[in-house]
Amino acid sequence: MNNSSTGRSRVTSADVAALAGVSQSTVSYVMTGRRTISDDTRERVFAAMKELGFQPNAGARALAGRRSNVIGLLIRLDTTTDMEGTLPFIDTITRVAREFDYDVVLVTGEDGAAEMERLAGRSVVDAMILMDIRDVDPRLDAASDLGVPVVLIGVPGGTTLFDAFDFDVTAAAEMAVEELVRDGADHITLVGEPPAVSSEGYGFIRGFEESAQRAADSAGLPLQIVRPPVPGVAGFHAVADQLLSEPGRAGIIARAPQVVSWTLHHLSSLGVTPGPDVGLVGLCTDEAATAFTEEVTNVSPEPRAVSRAAVERLVQRLAGIEPAHTPRATLLPPRLTRRATTRGHE
């Protein structure tokens, strides 16, 4: 990033770490005071800061003396958001944070990098959780220089400086396809995302679709991905006729709670009964799966387990307890429960 007033590249904590011959986390500890650092190392870091003209942001300096006991949760909410899939994350993050005496401030919108810098710079938050991670996410560059702990829900492409938590989308897609194969499907339709969403570069969407395709290929079944032209129920109705367009027993994968609901209503309007007539698997929580007009066979993405793991790791970092590994992606196993919309349920 260029400094608009000087035209020079902005000096980051990574530059300081390289010049001082230490890790970037050590530079963060020197700025925040969250861990004891030797005098020699501290002096080298300060000397590098002075030589490079690096200025720690206000949030990093404030952490050395006081805490707000607030965690910032940055999430994208817009007209394409399926709130039934998102609310379990928000609810669990808030509840688990309270267990550790932290409040949560919710920040929505696309201007994530600027919001992070504002919150940290004004010492509003002690740490941050970022959701809706893209393969290439501009918020991550900004997050690396905030001087506060950051944990991701969602896994970016390539390497990352942050711990990231998510469910295993590869295993989830395989479970869904395997259940429909067991159910006797002759062909499978995956209701995908509209172009406005699929083009945003969310790795969990691409990963689920690619894994479902591989699993279907391995089983020798054709799989089609139908993409609604626009978000919402209108987009779904534009492609709904494709769900049963091929002869033989159909298997349907609905990748969000809203899509499950729309699919059930569409099948009902045709006089088609999920389970006896067609197989249906939804990617949704157990709470959602049992609340539809028919109890739906589901693969749960375990949002509550993912959220708890993310908050607990963040609290560890706030306490100065560093895991004995470099930042990594932790993928929690999904879970399939067979219900009325596939055959053989109890």
* Average pLDDT score: 86
Beta percentage is 15-25%
Largest sheet: 6 strands, parallel
The residue ranges in which pLDDT falls below 50 over 5 or more consecutive positions are: 1-8
**How many discrete domains?**
3
Name the shape in a single word: elongated
Strand order of the largest sheet: 2-1-3-4-5-11
CATH superfamily of the largest domain: Response regulator
User: How many helix segments?
Assistant: 14
From the structure above, extract its key features:
single chain; 346 residues; alpha/beta; 434 Repressor (Amino-terminal Domain); Rossmann fold; six-stranded parallel sheet; 12 strands; 16% strand; elongated
What is the fold's blueprint, element by element?
Elements: H1 13-20, H2 24-32, H3 39-52, H4 58-63, E1 70-75, H5 83-99, E2 103-108, H6 112-121, E3 127-130, H7 138-143, E4 150-153, E5 163-167, H8 169-182, E6 187-191, H9 195-198, H10 203-219, E7 223-226, H11 232-239, E8 250-254, H12 257-269, E9 279-283, H13 286-289, E10 297-300, H14 303-318, E11 329-332, E12 335-337
Parallel strand pairs: 1-2, 1-3, 3-4, 4-5, 5-11, 6-7, 6-8, 8-9, 9-10
Antiparallel strand pairs: 10-12
Helix pairs in contact: 1-2, 1-3, 5-14, 8-10
